[in-house]
Predict the 3D structure of the following.
Amino acid sequence: MTSPSPSPSPTPILILDRVSKRFAGHTAVDELSLSVPRGVIYGLLGPNGAGKTTTIRMIMDILEPDGGAVRVFGEPGGGRVHSERIGYLPEERGLYRKMRVLDVLVFLGEMKGIDRRRARQRAEAWLERLGLAQWRLRRVDELSKGMQQKVQFISTMLHDPDLMILDEPFSGLDPVNTQVMKDTVLDLRSRGKTILFSTHIMEQAEKLCEQLCIIARGRKLVDGALSDIKRTHGGHHLVIGFDGSLGGAAQVFADKGLVSKVDNYGQYAELELASGADPQEILQRLVTSGARLSKFELQEASLNKIFIDLVGPEAVRA
Amino acid sequence: MRKIWAVIRREFVERIRTRWFWIMALLGPLFFAAVFVLPTVLAGGGGIRQIVVVDATTGSVGARITQLLNDSRVFRAVRVSAGGEVVDSLTAEVEQKRLGGFLILTDAAVDSGKAEYRGSNVSGFATVGALQRTIGEVVSAVRLEREGVDPRIVARARIAVRLETKKIAGGKTTGETAAQSFSLAYFMGIILYTAILLYGINVMSSVLEEKTTRIVEVLVSSLRPFQLMLGKVLGVGAVSILQFLIWGVSARILLANRPGFLTAGDLGEPDPVFQVPHVSGATAAVFITYFLGGFFLYSAMFAAVGAMSSSEQEARQAQQPVSWLLVLSFVSMFGMLNDPASAFSVTLSLVPFSAPIAMPVRWAAGNLPTYEIALSLGILAVSIVAVTWIAARIYRVGILMTGKRPNLRELVRWVRA
């Protein structure tokens, strides 16, 4: 999102409170807590095998947590209790191959708790909108893969849910459907819906998410607003340009409490900030020491960089 | 509850839309009729037998036997006088299949009751039995006449006795014959076995489809795995009931109009082992009750098998132990038919896995004490609950698992989890 995000309403739409899930021999999710505000696009990020799908399955009540609690819409219980208000697109997708498109949609709508008549009306409208109207009475296995993916989106949104949970929504999509998916997510967001999606592709998350949580090996590494995360985790890199006078810059750069690494070119320097250092303090000390600055820029690291810094290269490889 | 209903409806509607359902519905009665009629046709050898009577007797015995054989409509008999090469040339005829066989009659037939039949098929009990009866009748008549008994008295004495067997059930004599009981039991055994297996496997492939396409994830995020499994079993069960209704109605129409193939095997009045049985209301109730019991018991197991497999191939292997339970029950039906009251039969009708076939078979074959039915149903009901509970736990874990099939130890862990 390019526009500044409106302040989310106070009660989060989804809360995980120290949720854990163990399988034979390993812990897939380890005391994970997070909270998703209403009306945002929320990214659940992590390398493959980090526990994203397991977390989503616990939110959806497909798996029962071994510990901790899930609260949706401020009420206890997960996706099954509130299935009328939650849309879910699993990572691995499929439809009944032998059924007619319209019948599949009506059935899945019924599963989400809307009656047949309404499910049928909405399915027809959606098929029309995505250009599949003439396929509505055909069998699913007569459709191309791309068309089947569209039918799948429709099934997720048919009951007009307030919260959408999408597990790796962009994986395996062709470029056209990637666009459809992105537009749909943004459209839902503009209508006040909340979207939680998981991905391991940071570029996507960086463009779409307002809030996010990064997990690895079942544990939370960081969560919060994208802008905050970038500020706290990405603000380590400082670029300084001098306009003639260096003043006492050398002493300032030598302060290990402020700067951990310097790449000094004379009139230009790149600094790696020490952890906890305040860039404003460096600016102030440089100016009082008599340095003249032409440039002072705190560079924003890409989400990908932050992700790799946090997760470590070996986890990314996994 | 509305969601379970939707699952039931989907299973039902999608299944009766398939071509297979209608092929089964229409061809089923023909298939079962064939199962019925074939043994009769095969045993009777079918049609009229051409035979020759080689008459070496001095009186009229040969002529009278020939006459009576022709009257029976089972044989077409020609009488020839015995002579030098007659036997040799007849043997050649039989060998070339132009003749069914020939009967050699001498005076010994009347004196000591000996006659000889040579033919291509001497084991056909209907043929041999009919020959024996005919010869016996004529011989005893001739003997009596020789003793000076009035031929009219002999003719009156010849009237055959027809033994009617009737089953006693619930203190009342029913109109059912022993033969009918036998065929009813046999028939019910075959249908129960076929239907439980067929619809059980239907449940299995339905579970497998949802698992392999991963739709199951969406479904179990909306309703409990147990509700899904229940809806599936009930939906397929409803299809089977519809199938039975169609079969019942079409069998009734078929019998009312008795087409040619049902009477073709009728050899005049030989012992009809296979007769079209009369199905009483109580029998129908026992049949349906045990079918449903067996179907629920087995389809729960088949659902678990579907859930623990990841492909059709795996499922085919994994379902074998379950199918074998059913095959064993079916095979032991033949032993039970001989003695429906034996300890073996009673045991099988109490063991829940064989009871769905054993009990209806025993019911049809002979009188059953009510407490045995009650006991068997009680055990069956408890077993259904227990087996479904275990199956549901395997199902719950299995439908989300991919990769290799679990071994027994892992299964136990799934059940305990």
Q: What stands out?
A: Residues 259-275 of chain B have pLDDT under 50 and may be disordered. The radius of gyration of chain B is 29 Å.
